[in-house]
Amino acid sequence: MSRYDIITPKLLTHHKLMDGYMLVDIQSYQSQRKAVEAFARYFRREMHYDFLQYNYKAPAGEAYLFFMNVEPVGAVHFLQNESGWYLNWAWIHPYARGEGLIQKAWPSFVQRYGTFAISLPISPAMKRLLAKVNHPYIDDTDQGK
Ligand SMILES: CC(C)(COP(=O)(O)OP(=O)(O)OC[C@H]1O[C@@H](n2cnc3c(N)ncnc32)[C@H](O)[C@@H]1OP(=O)(O)O)[C@@H](O)C(=O)NCCC(=O)NCCS
Predict the structure, then answer these.
(1) Between residues 37 and 145, which one has the greater pLDDT?
(2) Any residues with Cβ below 6 Å from ligand 1, and which?
(3) Domain boundaries, the chain
(4) Superfamily of domain 13-142
């Protein structure tokens, strides 16, 4: 596998959805947790981070797998600290971006986690998404101006 290949993780039929998203936590099937980890790897690779932010063997917080036509196409991951919940990372397959997958799920995330924070640095695409859903965030690029 070259570093440019994107291979969507495989799940058993009854472990996936037609469309939409599902919660993945410590009680979820190993294959679902592995799928979240696979997307965390693509996130790390695209953003050029050196730290993998999800471990299927010790899954911290709560993650969500996103599906299109029964295919898992991405994930978001929430963690909790003393200030509350925050969105740790999000990654959607490039071919599935801009379809509103995360936007549609946003109200239910706000319902569950409150006005959660977003882990810095926030990518330009995520900033546009946050503007679209009217979600407050700290714009680190504004600091010092
Ligand atoms: C950020 C990311 C998770 C957004 O996922 P997505 O499923 O494409 O987001 P949605 O389709 O739900 O976006 C909804 C809205 O956000 C805005 N938006 C999202 N990505 C955008 C982009 N690249 N350019 C412009 N607007 C964008 C748009 O306003 C869009 O609504 P519209 O198409 O009706 O105008 C995805 O682009 C991604 O995986 N990027 C690479 C990793 C990354 O940046 N992660 C976030 C780190 S903080």
Answers:
(1) 37
(2) 43, 46, 89-92, 97-103, 122-123, 125-126, 128-129, 132
(3) 13-142
(4) Gcn5-related N-acetyltransferase (GNAT) (3.40.630.30)
Q: For residues 109 and 133, is the Cβ–Cβ distance under 8 A?
A: no
Q: Would you state the pLDDT for residue 75?
A: 98
Q: Which helix (H) or strand (E) holds 30?
A: helix 30-47
Q: Show the beta-strand stretches assigned E in the chain.
A: 20-24, 62-68, 71-81, 84-92, 117-118
Q: Which of 35, 36, 29, 71 is nearest to 53 (CA)?
A: 36
- Of 133, 131, 36, 132, the closest CA to residue 88 belongs to 36
Which residue has the CA at smallest separation from atom 41 of ligand 1? 91
* Mean pLDDT, rounded, for 100-108: 97
Q: Let me know: does 40 contact 53? Beta carbons within 8 Å.
A: yes
**105 vs 15, higher pLDDT:** 105
The answer to whether 74 and 90 are in contact (CB under 8 A) is: yes
